[in-house]
Amino acid sequence: MSYSNFDFMEVRPIGPDHKAIYATRRIAKDSLIGFFDGRSVLVDLADKSALDDYWWRQSVHLRLEGSKLLCLLPMWEPEGVDYLNHSCKANARVENQLYVYADRDIEPGEEITADYRTFNLVPEGKKCWCNTENRCEI
Q1: If we measure between CA atoms, which residue out of 72, 82, 66 comes closest to residue 20?
Q2: Beta carbons within 8 Å of 75's beta carbon, 6+ residues apart
Q3: Separation CA 81–CA 90 (nearest Å)
Q4: pLDDT tens for each residue of the chain, 138 residues long
Q5: Element spanning 88, H or E
Q6: Burial bucket for residue 88 (CB in 10 Å: 0-12, 13-18, 19+)
Q7: Which domains does the chain have, with CATH numbers?
């Protein structure tokens, strides 16, 4: 279970099997939104059988050394900041691979997003992960 500041955010479903986090009140720039935690795992990226869809969607990349990636995998059901989605027009940033901060003032009702390209160490062959045209700058 990651830490999430539920004083100003909530999780909402956005699809049949997908959730997102939204601001419930104004979040000031540079406020700590939450941080990731989990079980430490060393993954050999050369072993393609170790890379399933769940792993890609849920891992937090910490350090890449050659073909070995140190990452975190959730130990419990995801909650809060674990539902941080990608946007090319992100309003949050991830520092040191773990800490999620507001990158600008975030207004109530806004989805809280980060640009995965800035903190995922292993590219997945995607230009971006945006699921709608209006969230993408590419």
Answers
A1: 82
A2: 1, 37, 38, 39
A3: 14
A4: 579 999 999 999 998 888 999 999 999 999 999 999 888 888 888 887 766 655 666 788 888 888 888 888 888 888 899 899 888 899 999 999 899 999 999 999 999 999 888 887 666 555 655 665 555 555
A5: none
A6: middle
A7: 3-35+77-135 (2.170.270.10)
